[in-house]
Amino acid sequence: MVEPIWYTLILSTLTLTLTLSTATPPLNPAVNHFQQYLRINTAHPDPDYTTAVSFLNNLATSIPNLQTRTLHLTTPNKPLLLVTLPGSNPSLPSVLLNSHLDSVPAEPSKWSHPPFSALKTPDGKIYARGAQDDKSIAIQYLEAIRNIFQQDPGFTPVRTLHICYVPDEEIGGFDGMDKFAESNQFKEMNVGFFLDEGQASTNNEYRVFYADRSPWDLVIKATGKPGHGSRMYDNSAMENLMKSVEVVSKFRENQFDLVKAGVLPNSEVISANPVYLKAGIDSGDGKFVMNVQPSEAEAGYNIRLPPTADPDLLKKRIADEWAPATRNMSYHIVEKGPLRDYKGRPLITATNDSNPWWTVFKNAVEACGGKLSKPEILASTTDARYMRVRGIPSLGFSPMKNTPILLHEHNEFLKDAVFLEGIKVYESIIKAFSSFEGATP
């Protein structure tokens, strides 16, 4: 039977309506750029910095008024990208925003989704290594500037603003920000303020960090007389090491009690966490010789000191209590960051009206409807220490609220809505800093 033409038209219209209603919504360009960047594997031990810098450079040059330079301060496979938004008054100290290119390794078998797929779930979660730490801010900086000029093509910044994308932050920054901060290119920039990465907030307030803890690697070594497993010796290597482990553990417990009691946050105590123990004689088959007491034993600790700590007092404690020479013990400390700036001051950025940069930052966040939590010391370490040691005011900030803290964890993700809201926050921050003409220290 031939259907009437009106019936066919109605059926076609219904089919088209259903198809449109179930079609995948168009990708937000900014979210798409974020996912593309996340798919570039910059995880250690073999980060693909070249592809990452090429991608970011192409993205930056697609935005009006941005200038780019690629620097090679160490080796060709460790590029640094510098993006500049020139201001009309180059005599004013500039503002530098920072994002590191690298990320920590991921174990794919322990993830719900491949860690470099940047898969987005129906509820907007984008799963990828680096989603929070810290590829989100890398793209947010650029998309914020793009939006500023789309909304106001005539916008003219007064103060020059730079963005740097640096390698190797996750392994200390020695071939990244450390080298850059020592370079002539950096000195020519006349940086007056530095904004670096922060961490997610589990509530409705944005977190901001005014200092980092400084990392030390401590190795304690004990020696003693070797002998048969049946003999009893005074001051054997294992006995001396275990006494030391007990003393350090007690110190750690006392510090941790302050945190658990709510007296101090985790970032304001000295943490001394054991990371390895090494002793015994290898039997050659992956096991140990069980009837021989070893002549050497050692333990490794990762120590984090807040800028308020006295490093000399801790060194004295280590020498007198943790590894006393009277018990045939020695120790070695690798200090991976300073605790004082070039004037001998603690590496702390003021978060009050004495610091005009803080006032501009705080007002900018509030102007876009955001709220800051109480400023904190970051429990870990960032590239900001290379600025603070030079006396440059520096804050750590990543606009991720109502988000679980997942940096360095399995199944790291960031919701697309949180990412997009962060762009709006940076629009306000970038406009405020680049328009700020007030006096600075």
From TrEMBL:
Mention one GO molecular function: aminoacylase activity
Q: Where does Zn(2+) 2 bind?
A: D133, E170, H408
Q: Which GO terms describe its cellular component?
A: cytoplasm
Note whether Nucleotide-binding occurs among the keywords: no
Identify the residues that bind Zn(2+) 1: H100, D133, E197
Q: What top-level class of enzyme does the UniProt entry assign? A: hydrolase
Recorded coiled-coil stretches: none
Q: What's any GO biological process attached to this entry?
A: amino acid metabolic process
Enzyme Commission code: 3.5.1.14
The record, for InterPro entries, names:
Aminoacylase-1_M20A, Bact_exopeptidase_dim_dom, N-acyl_aa_amidohydrolase, Peptidase_M20, Peptidase_M20_dimer
Co-factor: note: Binds 2 Zn(2+) ions per subunit.
Annotated Peptidase M20 dimerisation domain ranges read 217-321
State if Zinc is listed as a keyword.
yes
Show which residues constitute the signal peptide: 1-23
> Keywords, A to Z?
Hydrolase, Metal-binding, Signal, Zinc
Which positions are catalytic residues? D102, E169 (proton acceptor)
Q: Which cofactor does it need?
A: Zn(2+)
Concerning PANTHER family, the annotation shows: AMINOACYLASE-1 (PTHR45892), PUTATIVE-RELATED (PTHR45892:SF3)
Q: What is this protein called?
A: N-acyl-aliphatic-L-amino acid amidohydrolase
